[in-house]
Design a protein that fits this description.
By secondary structure, the protein is mainly β. The chain has one domain: Porin, CATH 2.40.160. It contains 3 helices and 17 strands. It has a 17-stranded antiparallel β-sheet, sandwiched between helices. A hairpin with a 7-residue loop joins strand 3 and strand 4.
């Protein structure tokens, strides 16, 4: 039977943020929101989501940060807002681009002292056509409560997150259903090597027939950063329980590698490989999904940015119930044409190709190609 056990740290964080913040030194806290290693969000985004993030570097968020000093302890509040145009579909199918908005509010406090940091974060996201995508009464949001500490070279902490249906993170990760997750994590820096591990649980609403899905996950990640190259390797083990009344468990193994290499100052390469395997202990059926992709960023001139990428994904099961193969490619050229009044004028050309082959149901196979020319004016 599935039981939801909320982390005690959530109550501690609320008390910490609402308590008096007195007598602090400004600059004792890093207010950047923490990433979520529980679901390997950054490593396991679709290949084109990562490539698109690389070529959208010009779309910097408009942000404002201010601190309130009430004594020997620090209370800091940071807000950020960003608007950017994203593809209408994450698989690259040619659809009209929509404006995606993100608003983030982060509160940080060192009220507990001894290097213990408490955080509370509230974020909203939306599409222009959100009402057509889900029956949402209000904008989808994300709530995060966290507690972290540093002891020598070791950092550790706990986080609780809650996601509304339809929420899209700033990295492009989409939450199709309501989701809650809690985790304990620890990390250590050894020169250029960064090691991180975490254990946690997530609760996700699926459907009326299966109202709750519980996932227990253990994750280990290794990251290396050098001057001209780097890499990240992550593995996770998950136990998924589908229903509260009927025991329906699935074991999931996920492994991912992302590399980066910059042979020249004007050229960057980012290969990545991942494999996800699901095992049903009752039936013995296994489903594997390997993926390989390559992203390229080329800046031949100061005002010209060229990006491209290609990927190949295969999904198959041992009982021959599914056999899918997907091939995709994307290319983009951004040219800073100059200034229009007080704004910056950027001419952007985007090309996308996607082909899905279904060897079990040929009617589901499809092929799409799209091209889009945009004129962006920013910086007013």
């Amino acid at each position: 039977m599935i039981e939801r056990s909320y982390l005690p740290v959530a109550l501690c964080v609320v008390l910490c943020l609402l308590g008096r913040a007195a007598n602090a030194q400004v600059g004792g806290i890093a207010a950047d929101p923490a990433q979520s290693p529980l679901s390997l969000e950054l490593l396991l985004l679709p290949p084109f989501a990562r490539a698109e993030a690389m070529h959208n570097k010009a779309d910097a968020p408009v942000s404002n940060t201010f601190s309130v000093n009430l004594g020997p302890k620090l209370f800091e509040l940071k807000t950020s807002y960003v608007e950017r145009e994203e593809p209408g579909a994450s698989d690259g199918v040619g659809e009209e681009r929509k404006l995606r908005r993100h608003f983030d509010l982060l509160a940080t406090s060192s009220y507990l002292g001894n290097g213990l940091i408490a955080e509370g974060e509230l974020a909203y996201s939306t599409f222009d056509s959100l009402s057509a995508q889900c029956d949402c009464d209000e904008l989808p949001r994300m709530l995060r409560l966290g507690l972290r500490h540093r002891w020598g070279g070791l950092s550790y902490g706990a986080d609780y997150r809650s996601f509304d249906r339809g929420f899209v993170s700033i990295t492009g990760a989409t939450f199709d259903q309501t989701r809650e997750e809690g985790e304990f994590w620890g990390e250590h820096q050894l020169g250029p090597i960064h090691i991180r591990g975490s254990i946690g649980e997530s609760w996700e609403g699926v459907s009326d027939l299966h109202p709750l899905r519980l996932t227990r996950t253990a994750t280990a990640a290794l990251n290396i950063n050098r001057a001209t190259w780097g890499g990240a390797l992550a593995s996770s083990y998950s136990l998924v329980e589908q229903d509260a009344d009927v025991t329906q468990e699935t074991v999931v193994f996920t492994h991912a590698f992302i590399g980066s290499y910059r042979p020249l100052n004007i050229l960057s390469l980012a290969p990545n490989f991942s494999i996800r395997e699901e095992r049903d202990p009752d039936s013995g059926v296994r489903t594997a999904t390997p993926t390989a992709a390559l992203a390229v960023v080329y800046t031949p001139a100061r005002d010209l940015l060229m990006t491209g990428g290609t990927s190949y994904t295969r999904s198959f099961s041992t009982n021959a119930a599914s056999e899918l193969r997907t091939v995709g490619a994307t290319a983009a050229i951004d040219w800073k044409a100059g200034r229009f009044l007080t704004g910056k004028e950027i001419l952007s050309l985007n090309l996308r190709y996607n082909r899905l082959l279904d060897f079990v149901s040929s009617r589901s196979s499809h092929e799409n190609i799209s091209a889009m020319l945009q004129l962006k004016v920013s910086g007013f």
